[in-house]
Amino acid sequence: MLQGPGCLNFALILRIRKPGPLQNISTTNRFILERHCRALETHLAHPVSIQGSTDLALGNLKFSGNSQRRGLNWLLFHGTFLLRFDLSQMENLLAFPSRPPPYRRGRNHSRFLTNLPLSSGQIKKALRKAWDAGEPLRAVPRKEISQLLENRYSRPDWNLRN
Questions:
Q1: What pLDDT score does 16 carry?
Q2: How far apart are the first and last CA of the chain?
Q3: Among 128, 81, 90, 131, residue whose Cα is nearest residue 109
Q4: pLDDT value of position 32
Q5: Which pLDDT value is given to residue 159?
Q6: Domains held by the chain: number
Q7: For position 84, what pLDDT does the model report?
Q8: What pLDDT is stored for residue 161 in this prediction?
Q9: Residue 152 lies in a domain
C-alpha cells in the first residue's frame, strides 16, 4: 500500500461478540464496509459500492482499500481513502498486483483508481457518526507508540519484508 499526501487512514478496534456480524473475515468485511458505504453516500451524488472483498468504489473505480487483523476476541480493521492523492505515483511505485480482483479487468492503476471527492473532515465526521464515536481519544498512548516504533516500524526487516 502506497501512502502519501492525499491519503486518509483510519483504524477500528472492535470486540468480537458471539453471536454477531464479526464472527469471520467475510461477514466482518461486509458489516463494516456496508456501514461505510451508507455513511459516505450521504455526502455524495453517486452510490458507493463494495467491490472485491475489501474495496470501496465509485462506479468501478476504487477509492478505498481495507484489511483486518484478528485476535481471539478482537479485531483491527483499517483502511485508506484516496482523497487528493497523485495517482500517477501509483504507476511509478507499485507493481501490478499478483492477484487482482476480477472487477479490475486488467486496468493499470491510473485507470482503476480514483480520488473520493470529499474532504478529510467530511469523511471523519461521517465515520464518527457511523460508529457513534463522539468522544476524542483522551490520552495518546505515547509509550506504547514509541516502543512499536523502536521495536518494529523503524526496522528495515519489518518494512521491507515480503
A1: 96
A2: 13
A3: 90
A4: 98
A5: 78
A6: 1
A7: 95
A8: 72
A9: no
Q: Which three cell numbers stand for residue 91?
A: 504507476
Per-residue pLDDT, 60: 94
Instruction: Tell me which residues of the chain have a pLDDT lower than 50.
Output: none
User: What is the 8-class DSSP label of residue 137?
Assistant: P
Nearest Cα to 58, choosing from 78, 79, 36, 77? 36
Three-class SS string for 48-83? EEEECCCEEEECCEEEEEEEEEECCCEEEEEEEEEC
Q: Give the predicted TM-score (pTM) of the model.
A: 0.84
- What local confidence, expressed as pLDDT, does residue 83 receive? 96
Rounded CA gap, 150 and 80, in Å? 24
Strand order in the sheet with 7-15: 7-15, 74-82, 61-70, 55-58, 48-51
Strand partners, 70: 75
40 Cβ partners below 8 Å, 6+ apart?
A: 48, 56, 116, 118, 123, 126
Q: Which domain holds residue 132?
A: 7-136
Q: Is the peptide bond prior to 19 cis by the omega test (within 30 degrees of 0)?
A: yes
Is 108 within the bounds of a domain? yes
